[in-house]
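User: Let's play a game. I give you a shape written as tokens, and you guess the letters that built it. Ready? Here's round one.
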């Protein structure tokens, strides 16, 4: 588990450059898994439930930055998922050699 955490914190896996944006992205993704909602709804949920106050305009700006990085995010998700599968040696019906 430690090696996975180290790999996820490596510079090549950085999606957002600013720590504040990374923390906001983490908060939004975690909130979305629990309560799918609009950006405004997520901001309200995070504020009410976890005392995490993210300005709605800042959320929209961060999401615009994120939009530009979608190809990189897809590539990183694929590479990390594949690495996890190969490390666990999960059988995929012979599709991986």
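Assistant: Ready! My guess for every position:
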């Amino acid at each position: 588990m430690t090696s996975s955490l180290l790999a996820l914190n490596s510079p090549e896996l950085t999606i957002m450059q600013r720590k504040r944006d990374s923390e906001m992205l983490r908060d939004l993704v975690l909130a979305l898994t629990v309560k799918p909602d609009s950006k405004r709804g997520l901001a309200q949920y995070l504020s009410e439930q976890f005392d995490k106050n993210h300005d709605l305009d800042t959320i929209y700006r961060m999401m615009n930055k994120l939009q530009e990085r979608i190809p990189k995010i897809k590539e990183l998700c694929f590479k990390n998922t594949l690495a996890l599968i190969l490390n666990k040696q999960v059988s995929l019906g012979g599709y991986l050699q």
